[in-house]
Amino acid sequence: MINIRRLVTRLLAASCLFAGLANAQESTFKLGIAPHTSARVILEMYQPLRQHLERNLGIPVEVETAPDFTEFGRRALNQEYDLAVTTGHQARLYQTDAGYLPLLTYQAEFKAVGLVAKDSKYHKPADLRGTTVLALSPSSLVSLWGVHWLKNNNVGDITTHYVSAADSVSRQVLAGDAALAFTSLANYQKLPAEQRAALRILVESEPMVGRVYMLNKRQSAARARIEAALASFATTDEGRKYFEQNKLDGYRKLRPKELEAMDPYAAETRAILKGK
Amino acid sequence: MSFQPWRSIRGRLLFLAVAVEALMLTLLVANSLRLLTDNMGAQARRQADQMAPVLIAAIVAPLAQRDYATVQAVLDESASTGGIEYLAITDPGGRRLASTGWSEDTPLPTPDPEFRLFEGDKQAPRYDVAIPISIYGQKLGMLHFGLSLKQITEAHGQLFKQGIGIALLEIILSAGLMGLLGYFLTRHLTALTRASEAVAAGNLTPPPVPEGSDDVGRLGAAFNAMSHAVAERIGDLTAARDEAKNLARAAEAAAQAKTSFLATVSHEIRTPMNGILGMTDLALGTHLDAEQREYLTWVKLSGESLLRVLNDILDFSKIEAGQLDLETVSLDLPAMLDSMVGIYSAQATAKGLTLAWQADGDLPANVVSDPVRLRQILSNLVSNALKFTEHGGITIRVHTEKTEQPAVLHLHFAIVDTGIGIETAKQDMIFAPFSQAESSTTRKYGGTGLGLAIVTQLVHLMGGSIHLESRPGQGSTFYFSVSCRLGEAPAPSPHLPLPGLLLPDAYLAVKHILLVEDTPVNQLLGRKLLAKFGCSVELAEDGLKALAAMKSSTFDAVLMDLQMPVMGGLEATELQRAREIEEGLPRLPIIALTANAMADDRERCLAAGMDDFIAKPFRADEMLETLRRHL
C-alpha cells in the first residue's frame, strides 16, 4: 500500500508538473525585471538568461520591465509575471501579498549609495540641505533607503526627483541638475570609468538583500525545473559572463529571515502602491 | 488639286523636324518621369528606412516596459510631423498595442514587398511598411506605418503636366521656327512650283520667278529661260498647226470638191452609158444581119470597157476618200471560184490557155466577207493574168489559215500564171496607181494602171496583204490574203450575170409599172425593157408628176430616178410613204433607178423609204431580177 501511495503521489506530482508546464506553454513565460536601470540595459543584461530559460523550459520567454518600481510592483501584485526579479523589499511584499515564492538571490552584496560630483561642495549630509536629490521610483529600495538616510540625518528642505533610467542619474548629477543621486552600488560600478572618476560616493548603505528571483505561485509546479534551469545557467559561459560583468558573483539561496528584514520597506512600498 | 502640305519639301522638313522633336521630347519626359518615379520610390523607401530605426529606438524602452501610453504618445507625436498616414505597434502575437491614423476596427494593411509607385495606371495610395521590433534577439513586436505618397504623386503629376506643357510649347515653337525657316528656304521653290503649275494649266508665259546665285536661284533662272524658249516653240508650233489646219481644210475641201465632181461626172457619164448599153442590148435583141450584129457587139464591148474604166476611177477615188464601205455577208467560196473560172473560161479558151482553181485542204462551206470586193480582187488579178499570158495557163490556188480567234480565219489566194513575168526592179511599182511595168504595156495591152492599186487597197481594207513573185519569161504569182469570219448557214448561191448579150427568157406576169425618169433615152430604154418583160408602163418625168400618177392610178411597182427637175425621187418617195400611212394604203414597192453610184446613195434611198436600188447603167436581167423580188 505504501508503494502504491508513493506511486500515486509521484503521478500526481508529475501531472501537476506537466500541468504547470502545459499552462506555461499556453502563453509566453514572463520574466519581469524591476527597472533598476534603463529598459534597454535590462533587455541587454537579461538576454543570456532569457535564452537559457527558453532552451531549458522549452517555451518562449520574454523579458519585461516597467516604467518604474511602483508600476512594476503593481503588475507583480497583479500576477503579471511568471518570474519576477526585484529588490528585497518588493520581493517581501510579493511574497506576503501575492503568494510569490522566493527562489534565490545574488551572492554579491547589495548596497545603496549616494553619489555626488567629485569636486562638489557636498561632503556631509548637512551640505545637502536645500538641494535637489535624484532617486529612482519612490518605491525602489534605493530610494526608500535614501529617504530614510536623509531623514535620519535631519537633512531637510530637500527636493526629490524620480527618474526612470538609473544610468542617467549620474549624468544629471555631473551636469549639476541635482546635488546627489541615490543608486545601487552595482549600478555605480557599471558606469563608464570616466563617469565613475568624476563622481564621489558620499554615503554607502549596509549590505542588504539584493535582487531576488520570485516565482509566481501558478508556476509552483515547475519550480524545480525553473530552479534547476537557473542553477544550470550559473554554470554556463554566458551565466558566468553575466555574473562577472554585473559583479553579481552568482546565485545563492536566501538566508533565513533575510526577506522578513525587509518588512519596514515592504510596508512603505505597500502604502505607496495603495496610494497610487 | 487638293492641298497636300506633306508633299512639299517644306512640309516634309517641317513634319520630320516636328516628329523628331516630338519623339525626343517624349523620350525626355518619359525618362524624366521614370527617373523621378524611381527616385520617388527610392525616396519613399529611404524615408522608411530612416524613420524605422528612430521610431523603434523611441519605442523599444516603453515596449519593454509595457508602457503603451508612452508608445501611443510616441506614435501620436511622430504622426503629427506629416507625411505619415498611420502608425501602429503590434505585439509578437499580432495584437495591436497602439496606433494612430488607422481605425481600430480595420485590419492593418499588409505591405507589398514588390512595392511600386505606379502599377500601370493605378497609383499606390501610400507606402506600407511593417518592420519587426527586436532587440538582443527578443521580439518585442512589429512597427507598422504608412508613408503618404500624396506629395510624391502630386509632384509626379505636376512634373508630368509641366513636362507635357513644355514639350507642346517647344513643339509649337519649333514648328513655327521650322515653318518660318522652311518658308525662307523654299519660297523660291514655291514660286517655281506655282509657275510650273501655271504652265501646266496652259499659261505658257507665267510671271518670271525670282533668280539668284544660289541653287534655287539658278534653277529659277533656268526655268525662266526654259519658259521663254517653250513660249517661243509653242508659238512656232501654233503657227505651224494653224497652217496645217488651213492646209488640211483646203485639202479636205479639195477632196470634197473632187468627190463631188466625181459623183457628178459619174452620174453624167452613167446616164448616157445606161442609154448606150441598154439600147445596144435592145438592138442586139432584134433581127440583125451578121455585119450589124458585129458592129453593135463592138459598141457594147467598148461601152462596157468604158464603164469598167469609169468604175475603176470611182473605186479608187472612193478608197482614197475613205468612203468605201465593206459588206459582211455570207459567201459560198467554192461557188464563187467556180463562177470566176466560168466567167473567164471563154476568154482563156480563146487564147488557148487553161484556167482552173484548186484548194489546198478543205474550204469552209461558207464564210462571211464582202463577196463583191473579193470578186473584184480576183477578177482584176485573173484578167491581168489572162492579159499577160500567151501560153500555158492560169491557176487560182486557195487555202485557209486559222487564227487565234476560232471564228476568224485568213483566206490565202495565189494567182499563178505562165505569162511574160515582171523584172524584179519593176515589181514594186506595179502596185502604185497609174503605173505599169513598162510604158509600152499600155500601148500593147491597154489599161489605166489602176487595177492593182485598187486591188492592193481592197486587200488592205479586208485585213490582208499582197505581194508578188515573178521572173521574166517564166510567169508571175500574185499572193494575197484577206480576213473573214466563218459563216453559220450555207450562203445563198450568187446570182451571176452571164457575159455577153443576155435578155431574160422569162417574162413577168402582166404588171403595171410607173417609170419615173426625166432622160428621154432612159425613158425609152425603160419602156422597151418593161414591155419586153410583159409589163405595162406609165411614165412620169419628175417626182411631182409621179406623186400625181400614184394618187390617180394603181401600180404594182415604181422605178424611180433620183435626180429630176421639179421634184427628186427621194422627196417623192418620202411624200408617198407619208400619204400611205396617212390614208392607210398598202406599201407600194419603189425601186431606185439611178446613176448615183456613190457609196452612200443606196443608204439614202433606203432611208427615204425605197425598197431596192438599181444602179445605172444596169443590165436587163438585173432589172428583171430586182422587179421579181418585189412583185
Q: What would you say this structure looks like, in words?
A:
The complex is a heterodimer of chains A (276) and B (631). In chain A, the strands form 2 sheets. In chain A, strands 2-1-3-10-4-11 form a 6-stranded mixed β-sheet, sandwiched between helices. Chain A has a 5-stranded mixed β-sheet with strand order 7-6-8-5-9. In chain A, 47% of the residues lie in helices and 18% in strands. Chain A is of the alpha/beta class and 276 residues long. In chain A, helix 9 (223-235) crosses helix 10. Chain A has 11 helices and 11 strands. With 631 residues, chain B is an alpha/beta fold. In chain B, the strands form 4 sheets. In chain B, strands 7, 8, 9, 10, 11, 12 and 13 form a 7-stranded mixed β-sheet that branches. A 5-stranded parallel β-sheet of chain B has the order 15-14-16-17-18, with helices on both faces. A 4-stranded antiparallel β-sheet of chain B has the order 2-1-6-5. In chain B, helix 3 packs across helix 4. Chain B starts with 8 loop residues before the first helix and ends with a helix.
